[in-house]
Amino acid sequence: MRDVLRHHLFWPVAALVALLVANTVARPSFLAVTVRDGHLFGAPIDILRTTAPLLLVALGMTLVIATRGIDLSVGAVVAVSGAVALSHIASSPNPDSPVTVLTAIALALVLCLLLGVWNGFLVSVLGIQPIIATLILMTAGRGVAMLITGGMITTVNSAPFKVLGSGFWLGLPVAAVIAFGVFAVVAFVVRRTALGMLLEATGINPAASRLSGVRSRTLTWTVYTASGLFAGLAGLLISADTMAADANNAGLFIELDAILAVVIGGTALSGGKFNLSGTLVGALVIATLERTVTVLGISPLVTPLFMALVVIAVTLLQSPRMRERLTAARRRQVMAPAEPPSTARPDSTPDSTEVKA
Amino acid sequence: MTTSAPAPGAAPTEPVAPRARARKLPARLDRRYLPVLGTFVVLALMLIVGGTRYENFLTPAVISNLFINNAHLIVLAVGMTFVILTGGIDLSVGSVLALSTVITAALLQAGLPVPVVLPLSVGAGTVIGLAHGVMIHYFQVQPFVATLAGMFLARGLCFLIAPESIAIDDPSFVALASWVQIFGEWRMTSSVLIALIVVGLGFLVLHFTRFGRTVYAIGGGEQSALLMGLPVARTKVLAYVVSGTCAGLGGLLFAMFSRSGYSLTGVAMELDAIAAVVIGGTLLTGGTGFVLGSVLGVLVLGLIQTIITFEGTLSSWWTKIVIGVLLLIFVALQRVLSLRRT
User: Fold this and answer.
1) Do A259 and B320 touch (CB under 8 A)?
2) I need a surface site. Which of A74, A321, B76, B107 has the fewest CB within 10 A?
3) How far does B268 lie from chain A, in Å, by closest CA?
């Protein structure tokens, strides 16, 4: 039991379960999944679909945070991606042809990849603090997206593109299949090769890892590039869902939601150890929370309040001091004097933040 | 910009420890002032370019309006400077500003007198700032996350209090808001006066009090400050309290400016405040920067807006691109300066 309580995913999963229980109590049919028109249908499937873009962005964000960075520009990249793809489709004579759609997707992804390369260049080569380096693109990116769409909300009608947002494949939403597929591939590559460990080494101490032969700079550059690419993919999913490119509102605050998902998942913003399964749970918690608020009949405008409460609860429960208290209390109950101090768990030590300058 | 892999063994990109005084630079300007000087030059250039390009640009009316339209942002930037100097960040200021406008409007609508309402709406900011400080210092939550939570909390509370915009028509509040002092063609409203007082206080506190020096010391190195026996805990919490209070006060100024309270005001305003502080020459790692620099930063942002309005043909989204480019230039400048220091 104690192992379960101490597991790093315990609190995030508990939050997710609590949300699902609250939903089921409010609407008993909440968890029901039925087959309709040859594909699965129901609230859980819908949650999977709405999680997709957030999951992609949070995936890139986790990798960036692992290297002790942060990527604030993802929301702007989402807007740019949608703007590029839809502008290309809208300007082509034949919006329904798969070739047009594929070119649009390729254009958008390449541009977002380049935006990621730009962020990576600022951070890894020029050595600008990540928060500021990506703040530049965060501010300018939406302006660029506006420039591409000419300040309008571009809308298109293109059946092949629409599939990305609201199509189904093998009974599952295409968006979810793409996002979870990418997530699985990245998780596999990161955790089954040394890549994940090298990323953590870079995050824990960039100088030391460089001196021990880790190509920190290339790694840092790579994660920002990946973050840009994933944000671009998320932008395609979002714009395909609404079939509109809104430079002002597409992906607004998605960077904050993604950071929240990462934090709820137990990855510390101070870099180092990261936790992809936690990010997955975190993204699901946020998507479910948004759903819960509508199910409970609360105005969706109040959602931020609940987000804040979840974040405050989870971060406080994960904070070193609270863990100390909890272990101390538990120790007093059990009266086991020989228990090793469990506060020295690597994922909660704040030591890495002290290695400054 | 290249996409090729960096050469192995290139110079390390670790931030260098800021050194307060530049050696080997006798009788020249202290390096600490260089970024601020850069901001000043940009501001002067913008004024000159604007003045030569457009008629009626360099007039007291335009300059007065620059201050009147940005009074709330100046106050936010002063508070943000305190937090950034300690090496932290406050993402909640935009939402707290909105919360303060909504509280002001809702309480005035309920018929409470102005002397009761004003402390309450500013106090809301103070309380949120205190909560941030406690979370950050005592629970060791990263400033980014703690203030992000505060941002969501404040925004949610706004909608809980008032989903719709509330107009303010309380006569004494309107009288306070429309108080204006006219010197020739110059105009100064009550909000500009308050903003200038806040700037003055911020300057005095940072440079002439023990608290201010401790703020700089924490930004320079928290461990060292702790070992020196400085009251790190109290100062760090206070820095967030200052920022929260400034955000609350900023909300009051914005309520005076817009004569209403609306839950969606100040979206992304925290970014403007951070951009102003960075353009004003404060390092985000903490320890170096000036309140007056942040004020210059706000004026630069305001002038960009003014110039784009004067230009007329340029669309408003150019503002964002120009701010991004300016940020890039200033960050690169700071980077070069800190590299040369080694």
Assistant:
1) no
2) A321
3) 9
Rounded to the nearest 10°, the torsion over CA A215, A220, A226, A232 is -150
Question: In terms of C-beta density within 10 A (0-12 exposed, 13-18 middle, 19 or more buried), how is residue B175 classed?
Answer: exposed
- Residues of chain B in contact with residue A353, where contact means CB-CB under 8 angstroms, are 142
Residues in A 36-65 with any Cβ partner in B closer than 8 A: none
Which candidate in A315, A317, A318, A355 is best for mutational testing of the B interface (most B CBs within 10 A)? Answer: A315
Rounded Cα–Cα distance for residues A260 and B33 (Å): 37
Nearest residue to A255 via CA among A68, A77, A83, A12: A77
Mark out the alpha helices in chain B (DSSP H runs).
34-53, 60-85, 93-109, 114-138, 143-161, 171-177, 190-208, 210-220, 222-227, 232-258, 269-279, 291-311, 317-340
Nearest to A26 by CA among A352, A344, A296, A327: A296
Select the residue from A305, A321, A326, A354 to test the B interface by mutation, using most B Cβ atoms within 10 A: A305
Domain spans, chain B: 64-266+282-287
**CA separation for the pair A300, B159 (Å, rounded):** 10
Q: Considering Cα of B61, then B66, then B69, then B74, what sign does the dihedral take?
A: negative
pLDDT tens digit sequence for B222-256: 889 999 999 999 999 999 999 999 999 999 999 99
A321·B149 Cβ contact <8 A: no
Bridge partners (DSSP) listed for residue A35? A40
In the structure, how many helices (H) and strands (E) does chain A have?
16, 6
Give the pair of three-digit tokens for residue B24: 């080997």
Check A269 against B6: CB less than 8 A apart: no
Residues of A in Cβ contact (< 8 Å) with B157: 305
B227 touches A at CB < 8 Å: no
- Count CB neighbours of B29 within 10 A: 10
Q: Which of B97, B118, B116 is nearest to B251 (CA)?
A: B97
The residue whose two tokens read 């306070």 is B176
Residue B212 CA neighbour count, 13 Å, CB half: 15
Q: Note whether A357 contacts B17, CB cutoff 8 Å.
A: yes
Q: Mean pLDDT, chain A, as a whole number? A: 83
The shortest CB-CB distance from B139 to any of A126, A270, A321 is to: A321
Q: What is the pLDDT of residues B48-104, one digit of tens each?
A: 988 888 888 888 889 999 999 999 999 999 999 999 999 999 999 999 999 999 999
Q: Do A146 and B315 touch (CB under 8 A)?
A: yes
